Amino acid sequence: MFIIAGLGNPGREYEGTRHNVGFMVIDELAKKLGMNVTKLKFKSLVGEGNFKGEKIILLKPQTFMNSSGEALYEAVNFYKIPLENVIVIYDDKDLDVGKIRIRKKGSSGGHNGMNSIIYLLNSEEFPRVRIGIGKPQKDLVSHVLGKFEESEKKLIDEAVIKAADAVIDIIENGIEHAMSKFNGLQKGN
Fold first, then answer.
1. Is 0.85 topped by the overall pTM?
2. Which run of H or E residues covers position 128?
3. How many Å apart are CA 110 and CA 125, to the nearest integer?
4. Which domains does the chain have, with CATH numbers?
């Protein structure tokens, strides 16, 4: 069983913002896996299904980014699954736009959603898929809550598809395989 959580902020005003790439990847995964992410549970929009014999729970926390841990904590405790089967997908301002980085574990890197998750799960020992949104040219809040520039949209659309493929690869072949296959992938790779 896997819980796959994409981080973002609920509400129409946040759709398409840099901070919501996690939600975008969950939407892409739902499409690829034939799931609907519409049920309200665990302070999240949830989709449940099966993929190659594994139960899959897709999660879009509705707590707002800085409280994402509340949603994940509830789901992890309900299903009592090991943290290595929890995959978190989120934006990273320290990666170039469209770049993907998969890690087995690690710190929050200053990301408030990840701070919340690490604090409430009391662990950094869970896989994550980070998607580059580029360094802020202005203040950080305006950057992460802003929409992608026209020139960035194609890179992000491709990154969302690759991130969804990377999550499927983690489920099928393990995180080591996915890291060697997807880390650093960007347009043209």
1. yes
2. strand 128-132
3. 16
4. 2-182 (3.40.50.1470)
